[in-house]
UniProtKB/TrEMBL annotation:
Keywords: Glycoprotein, Membrane, Transmembrane, Transmembrane helix
Family (UniProt): Belongs to the DUOXA family.
Glycoprotein listed as a keyword: yes
Name of the protein described by the UniProt record: Dual oxidase maturation factor 1
Main localization of the protein described in the UniProt heading: membrane
Ranges of compositional bias, category Low complexity: 400-413
GO CC terms: endoplasmic reticulum membrane
Region (Disordered): 336-413
Native source organism of the sequence: Petrolisthes manimaculis
Chain segments annotated as transmembrane: 35-56, 68-89, 205-224, 231-252, 276-296
PANTHER family attached to this UniProt entry: DOXA1 FACTOR-RELATED (PTHR31158:SF1), DUAL OXIDASE 2 (PTHR31158)
Amino acid sequence: MSTYQAPSPGWFDEFRTAPFPTLYPELKTSVTQDVLYVGWGVAFLSAFIAFCLILPGVDRSLKEQVKVFVRVTTFLVIGLIIMLCNFGQEWEVGHIESHTLYKAGSADEIHAAIGVKLGLRSVNITLKADPEGSLSGEKIDYNERFSWEWAQGRAGFGPFAGNIQREFRAAQFRGTPLPILWIAEYFTFDGEGIRFGRHYRTAGWYAHICVWLAFPLWILMGVLYKLRIDYAALTTALTGGLLLVASIIWAAKRNFIELVVPFNDADLTTQFGKHWYLSLIMGVLCILVGLVLYGLHLCGFHDELSQFFGNNPLQILHQETSVDAEETPAKPTNEMEMEAVDSSNNLPPPANAPKNPVTLLRSRGTTKRFNKKVNSPSYLPPARPRPPQIPPPRTHLAAPGTSTSPPSQSGYE
């Protein structure tokens, strides 16, 4: 009978008794954070920290550095709120504590904290408890997400059903606790007045379109503030309008019957969450800021706005200098006479002399129909004195064969 010869000890064989690699059991952990949600926050925070590190090196005065800090910080905060509202899971929230059954096939009850969080794309259901009795030692900390993006699907729980129906059936096979299944089942019904899943899915669809559209407008807004402040102000107001519309759609498109899930000790209901309020408040603020900046632009505070945003007000303008009236063309005549020389400088200007110059400021890319006449001495070069115009001597041309001497006085009598 042969015997097993253990291999010689290696570098990584310390504290091992079996002649094979160590196998560890599955370690189940509860969900702590949404990776995508936290990722957006870390991205904007990294950009803000990098900006704060380079801000002291800006070769400007303290007042200018404060202006730059306010502009960049406001710009980053608006973008961060847009993305947090897009991927946040607290557009609508609900929370209760109640005694409830734990799992199917067991009579054990737990006193648990039950929560529901509704986002634009899914619903999160949490269950947390400190078990006692026969369940002591078991960790009860669940966070299950049921997504409804984006098709409604067929009725039932088959392969062609909606996403949330199929995820609900998979959770049943996994043995998910009963309180989570009890809440998720309300979003799988689709008949009569119980269509919570359909209405929340539709509301999330249109709201997430508005929020996603606000994101490229936010980028365009940052570019336009260095080019055209009036266009940037309108873009800011439009960005806020989309966030406001997203909040209105979510509030208006909900099921006409309120979501109420009964438990033993309380009924689980929902209220608007922080992301709904963030979208609403940021939308109103962006609209107000955009309208105020556009109003200041219309009132003529161009220099002040350009100074605050660090722009050159003339970098986007074409400057053309012309006259008020066109020159009058000379009339044709057959006489060729030269007037006498007048040595005095107090001569009247010619009839066809140009008027005072006028500066035309036209934005780049616009046509001449949108020219704006600006009689502003600050944009004109200093006026130069006009030299006196001395007319040529007046001469009389005689007919051929006649005397060239001027006619006598008697010739005119």
